[in-house]
Design brief:
heterotetramer; A mainly beta; B alpha/beta; C mainly beta; D alpha+beta; A: Folate-binding fold; two-stranded antiparallel sheet; about 10% helix; D: alpha+beta; Ubiquitin-like (UB roll); FAD/NAD(P)-binding domain; 7 domains; 7-stranded mixed sheet; 23 helices
Chain lengths: ~90, ~425, ~200, ~1000
């Protein structure tokens, strides 16, 4: 069970969190013209690197905040956790 | 090539088994091939075999980073089925079932295909209806399926929990009687042995480090054993697809996730069929050795580590005991994990790419093992003919743009939700 | 009587589990807590009002994890960033909260009926919690609270006292009976008295 | 039965307490403190079971967790326990066990015929045969093989034992209580660290219990007991015996199984049988020791061939002789310890040492004791079938290639020692890249991946002095960093014997013309020739060798066989062992009961259950419940002998004719507040939300970004900046997370708070033409006229003293109201509705009637919004705003989604108006077409229309818009049904929606 440091609550076990996937994907702005390709890239394409991965988790049974976690997908080492409004 | 049979076995026994030939050779790579298949897993080996057998293309190399059969063909729960709802999946898998039925004879290698039947348990009328939809679709596609009521299920698997004090009572189930299991390692070895005998070079311990591409056309690969030229290259590296895609500057509709499985210590035969729990994710069969082979959920976050965490297994086994209370007294002997390509609609991709001569076979999610022969057959066709066969036409890369998605579960892109 | 509390049907008085040959005083005590005011107070992101200056039942909000500011009647649990759960025996507090926390800056939501509340008291309280919740209870002190899960059920732990340990557990009301079962079952090893 | 092999004194057993037990139906006696294995050996029983493949007789090979043979079936606490290791099972009064994998019994086993045919069963033989005729594999060969496999027999009865869990945190977790574990635990505890010390066995002390050493001025054993009792008395230390740390997982979480009651005749009522500990440790010390390696020679699996360390353990701990004419076969000094122990107890051993000569302290001692030592000697083969009777021995050349004349010596046991293999499993599981240490021919941990340190013989250190020195130091250093305290203790002086170098020799060559089986994996019957065959056939990677031969895949997971297998592969391949590499170590280190892994979440509690405040009223009124997610909802209320169909028809009909009431508490409710709420809803839903007046509700559909419908429901504007959203029961939690996602990550500029209020409100839907009459009587002061409370209107009211919220919304398509009160008042509200409604013939209705009502109205629900449909498919086109952007909108222009023949929801009626169309049927043009028969679409929901008294279904079919009026077939091959049908509008009843507005 991973041990994730919620930037709001502190170190908590994985079972309080739910996974939210790639955090580097940015939703295109509302009402903005965008090509089909760019939109499909946003919806469907994933980098899924082996190694450092910036991803979203929601502290769903804790403070309910969405957080960003920089984690190694091979070793599961967590390098950094960020609040929703913080960037690496 | 030496023929395997009971007679050859007896003959060799009297010679102290000294005369058996190698199952496959250990060649050094040639400078050029007609086709290079990257990935010596089940799909890659099968592709090479069918390239040689069906298309007479034998100047083929399989490039494997580690040892052949070391990917998901060596770490699955051996289940073979074609019980899919969507036509694309159903027809593709049923084509594969026919290859499975003849595989031991075709490969002259006993892969122990055992059509012991798979039962998906239902725990509500609503679920019975969902299964009816799937079963009817199967039947209309010419695939065998039977809808069982509670009593019929009880007759087949009396050891399931039919007691009063149960959270998810068994309402019935959908059964595909012709589904079953096969000895996973044997599938890889059988394909390897035949492919090798037809001239395919199986090159192990050889890592692909890059690709040579010019004017949108593939020219060859760079490997830890040197550069190798090829007219066509097929990628068959489910689990590691994104790592190679990165070297090709491609981004794919795929995330890499970990699925764990485990076996119990062997016990005397108690369960003949493959059974899946309907109120969660748990499936179970008993191997010929007596071990209960069990699996279920993804660990639930991107992972390339072939090791998982216990809470996932705890969760899976909780459902296991809910289905088969007798499991409680058994002991978990061995656990392992496999990394898989989770595609954004849960279905695979077998297609050409925008790079001429580069072909893609990936996105198998949890369903790669059973697809081995059909995947190899259709991928070989796609490579040889430079166009998909009608069986894999639906598994196109551009379906995510056109909206022709094949989503068996209706979960969309959040692959980790199970 | 019109009110029926969340655990009304499952909470039965008596002695249970390994209680024989034990001093009743040393047993765990399990009770249902009813009729509390439970209010969520959230400050909107763009609000510039300083919440430290607002008084609720002589208490001030504190935006700090684990923190519980409290007096005899009222406890304000930190629930997330600028998000608090006020729990009070004073049912009439809601009106003054709504008045003091203006709706342009704060969302005030009455959730009094949305929780089932179990209180357990005794030396083995933390042992009971450790059976189903992976939180490190060694660090939970008096007047700390956390949100976590117990055997898959989301719950809140409010540590009221520490000699002996006394905690209040809040679960969503519909999960109440399941959580109660889980907690009561975990208490059996030590023996408990249901009040 | 007398214990012929028990010494008169010695050992750590309690000789004051005799224990009787049964093995294979026969009664025996042992002592408290025995294992089943030690007690059987004391009674001269060496035949315990049969091997997997050849059914060769099997006895005892070890004395603990590494045991490959002695697996028995137990009967404890009136329950069956399959696959118990006799070496781990402590003896208790009345214990009953029997042999497995043999028939009719262990003495005479029919399966042993395999042994005589063994030349036909080399590794992987089954891949080469059983292929003809084709059907015979599954029908003939496989069933025979299956029957022969497996050890114990499982009972299909429910397990009555309790298994519990515990989550624990500590500064240092120390796995193993041998010298390194004790020393490091002691040092760390002195620095105030929170320490957990776990010992697999019942006794603490590890090798100190059996070795002849002095620490300070105490024996090793005394010292260990002193340290343990001190540790036990410290409040910062948890000391656990019978506790195996079996898994090292991510972020320094380890899992340990504690066997609490397995050694007792039965478990106390509320005491668990086992407890699984999830331990998060800041630092881990692996002090798991080492396991002796076998030497490989002919028939080395014969009962009576045993690890020399095990023989010593049986002597020193249990006072039991594994034989009275022992042969000790060793390549190092350890064998001498066993020999000396025999000698001290009046037994004359013969020592065969593979080394040319050696003159260490211990060999000198053995010589002084007049022990018969033969240097450069090996055992060629053991003789005897069910027990060792003699051994063929011979002198071996210095280069170990040639053997000389065979001599036969009488013996009744052969104690083997092939040096020691560090137990590195946990370190390897944690990610440690291990390294090969030449001096000991084995792997040891190398670079740590997580916070783990390996000490003592697990780290390849075999002298006590060095072990204690490094362990005290590490324990001190690691804990000091955590606690910032240092209370350093001085390391006691150690007296131990100096050892000479071991011999790298491990496998005895075969004499000319002999074909003895030389076993590597004893349980799976993997021999030297099997490995050689695999390699000859090209299975050369160690993983291939393992999989082809099944080496190391038995229940002992290769603890005694793996390294010898590696040696063999590297010899054959002319490589060194580190090049071959070892197979991956995965948890669990040793098998763990599945019951313990699962814990208490079993039976009815395998998942939580959610209940509404009216649940108990439903229960009392004969509701039959159905799972909706984890909620329990009344499906129907059974009157007399009614079945589901009759009851739901009655309930639905009553709604259409009179009035019904349905518990809708389970619908998700989200309280939305904040100045930007309207803007937020406008982005979330497909339709327009900016102009919804206060006091009004609106139906909305929300999409995922991929354009697929996620959920639907009504949202009501309670006040200017306050909305009450409802979701479906199934999607409630997902929708809340979805909203939080957009508010926190995508549009943080919006000032909106969302919180689930599902549990705050108990909801009752009152539906039917007479619902207004009921409402009027419930709220006499409220204007409930169509003008006072119009369709999609919202009011607050006072329900006999209780505050209520009234929403005029309808899922049933009838005139309907949803009344919400605070949950504690839910039951009160419900009873009031039933009481008031009596005169209007009110009846409660369940989800089945609710389905009927919505289906005939053509309202889409979960079976249509199945995660694969877009709004157009569900005839929700009118709700998709063309003017504004919203989540998922951009996906709706995909080729497939705007195709003219796109699928759409339609109604389906059987032409005979009688035959119900099963849900999950398919619509086809030609029922007799050859397979695969092209499908137009599927039947998503079916009901018996109470309005028209005939079956009616919804279907989603291709080109649905243009299909209305067509006559097609509904097919359910599963149910052998081909039903001629007509496609009609999905709005079967009240297509204009007049009733809801009446």
């Amino acid at each position: 069970m991973l041990y994730i440091k919620c930037p709001h609550c502190g170190l908590r076990s994985q079972n309080e969190f739910s996974y939210g996937g790639d955090a580097t994907v940015k939703r295109p702005e509302l009402n903005k013209e965008i090509s089909d390709q760019d939109w499909d890239n946003f919806v469907y394409l994933r980098k899924s690197p082996r190694g450092k991965h910036l991803e979203l988790w929601q502290h769903i049974s804790g403070c309910r905040q969405w957080i960003k976690v920089e984690r190694d997908t091979l070793t599961h080492e967590i390098f950094k956790t960020l609040k929703a409004n913080e960037e690496l | 090539m030496q023929k395997y049979s009971v007679f050859s076995l007896i003959k060799n026994a009297f010679k102290g088994h000294k005369d058996w030939e190698v199952a496959w050779k250990d060649p050094t790579p040639k400078t050029e091939y007609d086709v290079i298949i990257i990935g010596g897993g089940g799909h890659g080996l099968a592709t090479a075999y069918y390239l040689a057998k069906e298309h007479n293309i034998t100047k083929v190399a399989i490039i494997e980073k580690g040892w052949i059969g070391g990917g998901n063909v060596g770490r699955n729960t051996t289940i073979i089925r074609s019980n899919y709802m969507h036509d694309e999946n159903g027809l593709f898998s049923e084509f594969g079932m026919n290859l499975w039925r003849n595989m031991s004879q075709d490969l002259n290698f006993n892969v122990m295909f055992s059509p012991r039947g798979i039962i998906n348990l239902a725990h509500s009328d609503a679920q019975m209806n969902v299964y009816s939809r799937r079963g009817n679709s199967m039947r209309l596609n010419g695939i065998d399926a039977v809808l069982l009521n509670r009593e019929e299920v009880r007759k087949i698997i009396p050891m399931a929990d039919f007691s009063e004090n149960v959270r998810f009572p068994i309402f019935g189930g959908l059964m595909q009687p012709s589904a079953g299991t096969a000895r996973h390692d044997a599938v890889a070895w059988g394909y390897a042995r035949q492919a090798d005998s037809m001239g395919v070079d199986i090159i192990q311990n050889c890592e692909v480090t890059g690709f040579d591409i010019s004017n949108g056309k593939i020219l060859g690969i760079r490997t830890s054993k040197g550069n190798i030229k090829a007219k066509k290259i097929g990628l068959c590296v489910a689990g590691s697809t994104n790592i190679l895609a990165e070297k090709l500057n491609m981004t794919l509709p795929i995330e890499t996730h970990l699925l764990q499985a485990c076996v119990s210590e062997p016990i005397k035969p108690i369960l003949d069929n493959v059974v899946t729990f309907g109120a969660g994710h748990f499936y179970c069969s008993q191997s010929d050795k007596g071990e209960m082979v069990m699996g279920g959920d993804l660990d639930g976050y991107n992972s390339y580590s072939q090791r998982g965490n216990l809470p996932t297994l705890q969760h899976v086994l909780t459902e296991g005991i809910a289905m088969f209370p007798f499991l409680s007294k058994l002991k978990m002997l061995r656990t392992w994990g496999g990394i898989m390509d989770m595609s954004m609609d849960g279905s695979p991709i077998i297609d050409k790419t925008h790079i001429e001569g580069l072909y893609l076979n990936c996105g198998w999610c949890y369903g790669g093992f059973k697809a081995t022969p059909a995947s190899g057959w259709t991928f070989a066709h796609t490579i040889a003919q430079n166009r998909p066969h009608e069986l894999n036409a639906g598994y196109s890369l551009n379906r995510f743009s056109t909206g022709h998605l094949i989503d068996e579960k209706g979960l969309g892109t959040k692959t980790w939700i199970s | 009587m019109t009110l029926i509390s969340a655990l009304n049907h499952i909470h039965k008085k008596g002695l249970f589990g390994n209680h024989e040959n034990k001093n009743e005083e040393n047993l765990l005590k399990v009770s249902e807590i009813k009729n509390l005011l439970i209010v969520q107070i959230v400050q909107y992101k763009s609000s510039t009002i300083s919440f430290e200056n607002i008084d609720i039942d002589s208490l001030k909000l504190k935006n700090e994890p684990l923190s519980v500011v409290n007096n005899n009647d009222t406890r304000i649990l930190w629930n997330g960033p600028k998000n608090w759960l006020l729990v009070s025996a004073k049912k009439n507090l809601l009106k003054s909260i709504s008045e003091n926390f203006k709706e342009t800056d704060f969302a005030v939501t009455d959730l009094s009926h949305s929780r089932a509340i179990i209180e357990i008291e005794g030396q083995d309280v933390k042992e009971v919690l450790k059976k189903g919740c992976p939180f490190n209870f060694d660090i939970l002190e008096k007047n700390n609270s956390i949100n976590s899960t117990y055997n898959g059920i989301a719950f809140t732990v409010d540590m009221i006292d520490n000699n002996p340990d006394k905690v209040r557990l809040f679960a969503l009301r519909s999960f109440g009976e399941s959580l109660y079962h889980s907690i009561a079952d975990a208490c059996l090893e030590y023996g408990y008295k249901s009040l | 039965m007398s214990e012929n092999f028990r010494l008169d004194k010695g050992g750590l057993i309690n000789r004051n307490k005799k224990i009787s037990f049964k093995f294979n139906g026969k009664k025996y006696l042992g002592y408290e403190g025995d294992t089943l294995a030690s007690a059987l050996i004391a009674n001269g029983v060496h035949l315990v079971g049969r091997s997997f493949k050849y059914h060769r007789p099997r006895g005892f090979f070890g004395a603990g967790v590494d045991e490959p043979y002695a697996i028995v079936q137990m009967n404890r606490n009136n329950q069956v326990d399959p696959n118990v290791k006799a070496t781990e099972q402590e003896l208790f009064e009345g214990l009953e066990a029997k042999s497995v994998n043999c028939w009719p019994n262990v003495d005479f086993d029919i399966g042993a015929i395999n042994n005589f045919l063994n030349k036909f069963f080399p590794a992987g033989f089954y891949y080469k045969t059983f292929m003809w005729p084709k059907s015979f594999w599954h029908k003939v060969y496989e069933p025979i093989i299956r029957k022969a496999a497996g050890f114990g027999t499982a009972s299909i009865k429910h397990d009555k034992e309790r298994y519990e869990h515990k989550y624990e945190y500590c500064d240092l977790l120390i796995t193993g209580s041998g010298p390194s574990g004790l020393a490091s635990a002691y040092a760390a505890a002195q620095n105030g660290a929170k320490v957990i010390l776990a010992e697999d066995k019942s006794r603490f002390g590890g090798s100190l219990l059996t070795s002849e050493v002095t620490i300070g001025n105490q024996s090793g054993q005394e010292w260990s007991q002193k340290i343990i009792s001190e540790l036990k008395s410290m409040p910062n230390v948890i000391v656990k015996n019978r506790s195996q740390v079996f898994g090292y997982y991510d972020h320094n979480m380890l899992v340990m199984s504690e066997r609490i009651s397995d050694h007792l005749p039965k478990s106390e009522k509320y005491t668990p049988k086992q407890r699984l500990w999830y331990i998060r440790a800041k630092e881990v010390i692996i002090s798991s020791g080492s396991i002796e390696r076998p030497l490989v020679f002919g028939n080395n699996d014969t009962p009576g061939v045993i690890l020399s360390s095990a023989a010593k353990e049986y002597l020193k701990i249990y006072g039991v002789l594994v034989g009275k004419k022992p042969l000790v076969f060793t390549n190092n000094d350890s064998g001498y310890e066993t020999a000396i122990e025999f000698k001290k107890n009046g037994i004359d051993p013969i020592v065969l040492d593979t080394r040319k000569d050696s003159n260490s302290e211990i060999i000198k001692e053995a010589k002084d004791l007049n022990i018969n030592i033969k240097f450069s000697y090996v055992v060629v083969t053991a003789k005897g079938y069910k027990k060792v009777k003699s051994a063929d021995i011979t002198k071996i050349s210095d280069d170990k290639k040639n053997i000389s004349t065979i001599e036969n010596v009488n013996c009744d046991c052969i104690c083997v020692s092939g040096f020691w293999t560090p137990t590195i499993h946990l370190a390897s599981q944690s990610g440690n890249k291990t390294k090969f240490k030449e001096e000991i021919d084995a792997f040891i941990p190398s670079q740590s991946k997580q916070k783990e340190t390996t000490l003592g013989s697990a780290n390849g250190i075999f002298t006590l002095e060095e072990t204690l020195n490094t362990s005290f130091e590490k324990g001190n250093d690691l804990s000091k960093q955590i606690t910032n305290k240092e209370n350093k203790i001085s390391v006691p002086t150690v007296v131990e014997k100096k050892y000479s170098k071991h011999d790298k020799f491990w496998c005895v060559p075969l004499p000319k013309g002999k074909n003895y089986k030389r076993f590597l994996d004893f349980q799976n019957d993997v021999t030297v020739s099997d490995i050689q065959l695999a390699l000859r056939e090209g299975y050369r990677s160690i993983e291939h060798v393992k999989r082809y031969t099944t080496l190391g895949m038995a229940t002992d997971q290769g603890k005694t066989s793996n390294l010898n297998g590696l040696q063999l592969v590297s010899d054959f391949e002319n490589k060194v062992v580190p090049q071959v590499g070892h197979t991956t170590f995965r948890p669990p280190y040793t098998s763990v009961s599945i019951g313990a892994i699962v814990g208490r979440e079993i039976g009815i509690h395998s998942k939580p259950t959610r209940k509404s405040p009216m649940h108990h009223w439903h229960e009392k009124n004969n509701a039959v419940f159905v799972d909706a997610g984890v909620w329990l909802r009344p499906r129907y209320y059974k009157h007399g002998s009614e079945n589901l169909f009759e009851a739901s028809k009655r309930e639905a009909k009553n709604v259409r004719q009179n009035v019904g009431v349905c518990d809708v508490t389970t619908l998700g409710k989200i309280d939305i507040k904040g100045p930007d709420s309207a803007e937020f809803l406008n982005r979330v839903y497909t339709n327009a939300w900016l102009k919804l007046p206060v006091g009004k509700a609106r139906y909305g559909v929300m999409l995922r970004e991929d354009g697929i419908v996620m959920d639907d429901g009504t949202t009501t504007r309670i006040s200017e900046n306050h909305y009450h959203m409802t979701t479906t029961t199934a999607q409630a939690a997902n929708v809340l997370s979805h909203l939080e996602y957009y508010l926190q990550l995508v549009w943080p500029e919006l000032n909106v708070n969302v919180v689930s209020s599902t549990e705050q409100w108990a909801g009752a839907a009152i539906a039917g033409p007479k619902s207004r009459d009921v409402l009027q009587k419930l709220f006499p002061d409220l204007d409930v006229t169509n003008e006072g409370l119009p369709f999609m209107g919202y009011r607050e009211g006072n329900l006999f003293g209780v505050n209520a919220k009234i929403y005029r919304i309808s899922f049933s398509g009838e005139l309907a109201y949803e009344v919400n009160v605070e949950s504690d008042n839910g039951n009160y509200m419900w009873e009031k509705i039933m009481e008031i409604g009596k005169e209007f013939n009110i009846q409660p209705y369940g989800t089945e009637a609710l389905s009927t009502l919505r289906i005939e109205m053509g309202h889409v629900a979960g079976s249509e919004l199945d995660g694969r449909t877009i709004p157009y498919d569900n005839s929700l086109d009118g709700l998709v705003s063309k003017k504004k952007d919203f989540i998922g909108k951009r996906s709706l222009n995909k080729t497939a989604y705007v195709a003219p023949d796109r699928q759409k929801v339609v109604g389906v009626v059987p032409l005979d108006k009688k035959t119900s169309i099963p849900e999950g049927s398919y619509i086809v043009r030609d029922a007799k077409a050859k397979l695969p028969n092209p499908k137009l679409g599927h039947v998503s929901a079916s009901c018996w229309s109470v309005e028209y008294d005939n079956p009616f279904s919804l279907a989603i079919i291709k080109d649905g818009k243009n299909m209305i009026g067509q006559k097609l077939f509904a097919m359910s091959p599963l149910k052998n049904k081909i039903i001629p049908v007509e496609i009609v509008s999905s709005h079967y009843v009240d297509p204009k929606g007049e009733r809801v507005r009446s």
